[in-house]
Write a structure and sequence with these properties.
Length: 217
């Protein structure tokens, strides 16, 4: 690991807005009250990387709590540091494997989940790693509350098609969908937030896919 990565890994461990691995389990069912010290809704950004959605949504919606989830501490470092420097209190980061999400969040604890530019894992043998496979969807359904909403933003057309197949197979309700967000009429301040990876794809004119759905029948 490079020096800079090591430094960020060490520093992130000292940040009060970052919780790592098993330490996150003590907040299960109590993220709002115990971690944030309030009773506001909790929104997750999965595969958050540097946490652009987490930080920017937190600024836009001070009446909600936002938790960025990723296992790469050096990436989380960026968003966590910005939140600390700017004094944004409704931001937290959880460094875990998303596979363990049910160990960290209780049933109905979450109001919205964003998945931002997840690794597409195109090989068939890697389907189990895709963050919208049926097993992950079942977990998200459990932790989302009754009116819970899912959002996916991805550059990867194959991953997008795969996700739509899963949504359709489960007969879930889609609220919004577009294979070319910035040419659609869906763009607003929230959907215009751009992540680190998104900027790279936009720089080479890649279309951005977006779908919003619910598990509520
Ligand atoms: C392509 S990056 C996208 C990062 C960020 N959302 C963006 O758009 O800039 C995918 C991220 O997902 C994280 N990731 C992938 N699989 C994961 C898993 N199972 N658990 C936790 N994080 C995961 C990686 O560490 C990486 O930061």
């Amino acid at each position: 690991m490079g020096k800079d990565k090591l430094r960020k890994f060490a520093e992130v461990a000292t940040f009060e807005n970052v919780v790592q691995l098993d330490a996150g389990k003590e907040y299960k069912g109590q993220w709002a009250s115990k971690f944030f010290g309030n009773n506001m809704p909790v929104v997750l950004e999965l595969a958050c990387g540097k946490g652009e959605y987490t930080v920017n949504l937190a600024k836009m919606f001070p009446n909600k709590n936002f938790i960025g989830v990723d296992y790469k501490g050096n990436r989380i470092w960026r968003g966590a540091k910005t939140a600390l420097e700017e004094g944004i209190k409704n931001v937290g980061f959880l460094r875990i494997q998303i596979e363990t999400i049910l160990e960290h969040f209780a049933e109905n604890e979450i109001s919205e989940i964003w998945i931002t530019f997840p690794d597409p894992q195109p090989q068939e043998s890697r389907e189990k790693k895709r963050l919208t496979n049926p097993i992950f969807l079942e977990r998200y359904k459990l932790i989302l509350n009754q009116d819970g909403i899912m959002h996916l933003k991805t550059d990867n057309d194959g991953f997008y098609a795969y996700t739509l197949e899963q949504i359709d197979a489960l007969k879930l309700t889609k609220f919004k969908e577009t294979a070319d967000l910035y040419k659609s009429n869906l763009v607003d301040d929230v959907l215009s937030i751009k992540t680190y990876y998104e900027r790279k794809y936009l720089a080479v004119d890649k279309n951005i896919n977006y779908v919003q759905w619910t598990f509520k029948k």
